[in-house]
Fold:
Amino acid sequence: MVKAILLPTDGSATAIAAGDFAADIAKCEGAKVVVLGVLHPHQWGDTTELPGDEVLRSDMHRAVDDEVARLGGMGVQAEARTWDTPTDQVQTAIEQVAREIGADFIVMGTHGRSGLDRALLGSVTDRVLRHSTVPVLVVPPTSVRPQSQPRTTAGAAAGV
Structure:
């Protein structure tokens, strides 16, 4: 039985698609979803003019709060968590929070970076996949939302 799902978010469409998957699983399993926002110094990529810390923090909290409200509107028990990291170690924050809450798994969206951007910036999702001791479900941005249907005994036995 799934009790807790960690959903890291940045408010992007990809993160929202991952939230849809997390919501469907949470509803079927009666699990809670912990929505995590991580503030880190490189989240704006190669932008030379960065907004102040207050703006970044406010945007992160808004993204997390919006997702918690969205999930709640879907009938999912959801709670907010935020994390400030002074370095670009977002995957470390994700892994630590997953352990703290006893997450059964992490649901993350891909970022869709490719080419030089991906080579230079890397992918948080890739790093979490490589290092996490908690299972990770990765959702691409073009994913079709699954249908919310409770598992039947026959479906559970068949691995559905």
